[in-house]
Specification:
alpha+beta; Rossmann fold; Tumour Suppressor Smad4; six-stranded antiparallel beta sheet; 25% helix; globular
């Protein structure tokens, strides 16, 4: 009976940046053949990664998402409460979850980490029964994610241009947030839920978030004048946004309900992927529900 660890690599050929055709040869270079066997599949459309992972999770010890946060969410969501572990080779625009988990951003480093095969468990969440691994959001971040999805050019500079273009024209929604730990009603630029610490590219919305503690953070950001934007941005990227007077955060363990007024169709995002809803959302925490390499 074989004792080799079986790994399936699911590659999103169009995610983020970089040439994905360099990855298959590197797998053979960095995974010892006396310890591992592997297969490679390529996604052909959105949600294809989830379809593959759901179908194959019983046949492998780990499934590796090769792509951005959207690919990681698709494949990771299929592995929640399963014995099959999630590996990540970050090839997206932001790579928020990989950065939080200190997974190397270079392919070789990520493969070397996978080769150690040291699994551990992290928390995941649900937004109206849709899984998220790192973050979800319902304010300006969701508005920009929606615009970015059809912007054409990927990467940090494209995202920054959208933020600059959209900020002053963005109309603040009113958030009504309730739960055993929280009772808030206010306007805000940003209303986000943080399991991990950042959206990606080092943009850190919740510096103290621990992805293994069974606690999420509700993050709110008040409207600030455009002249304050450079200082606010520096605080996000220096992991010190919690020192800003415009920032507030509440930790919670139990289910949270978020109602968004002023809009019939609400943009929101799950791990950076834009979606639309009716303005009523339930957040549920699932402690230690996903195994990560």
């Amino acid at each position: 009976m074989s004792t080799l660890k079986k790994i399936l690599f699911i590659i999103n050929p169009i995610s983020g940046v970089g040439k994905k055709n360099t990855i298959p040869p590197l797998i053979g270079d960095y995974l010892p053949t006396n310890q591992f066997s592997w297969d490679i599949r390529y996604t052909e459309k959105r949600k294809h990664g989830a379809e593959i992972a759901f179908a194959e999770k019983g046949n492998y010890d780990a499934i590796v998402a090769v792509g951005g946060d959207g690919s990681v969410n698709e494949i990771g969501s299929a592995l929640i409460h399963e014995d099959c572990a999630l590996g990540i080779i970050p090839c997206g625009s932001g790579n928020g979850l990989a950065r939080h988990l200190h997974i190397p951003l270079k392919v070789v480093g990520a493969l070397q980490r996978i080769a150690t095969f040291e699994p551990f468990s992290i928390d995941t969440g649900l937004v109206n029964d849709q899984p998220f691994l790192g973050t979800c959001g319902f304010g300006f971040d969701a508005h920009v994610a929606n615009k970015f999805d059809s912007f054409g050019k990927r990467g940090f500079l494209s995202y920054a241009r959208l933020v600059i273009r959209e900020y002053n024209r963005y109309e603040l929604p009113t958030f009504q947030i309730s739960g055993s730990d929280v009772d808030i009603k206010k306007e805000a630029v940003m209303c986000s839920i943080a399991n991990s610490s950042q959206f990606g590219n080092g943009f850190t919305i919740s510096p103290n978030s621990d992805i293994q503690d069974g606690i999420f953070e509700l993050v709110l950001l008040d409207r600030f004048g455009w002249v304050k934007a450079p200082a606010i941005s520096r605080k996000f990227f220096s992991k010190s946004i919690q020192t800003s007077k415009y920032f507030s955060s509440v930790a919670f363990k139990e289910d949270l309900e978020i109602t968004i007024h002023n809009s019939e169709h609400v943009n929101y995002h799950i791990d950076g992927e834009p979606l639309q809803g009716n303005g009523k959302f339930k957040i549920t925490i699932r402690p230690k529900s996903l195994t990560i390499l």
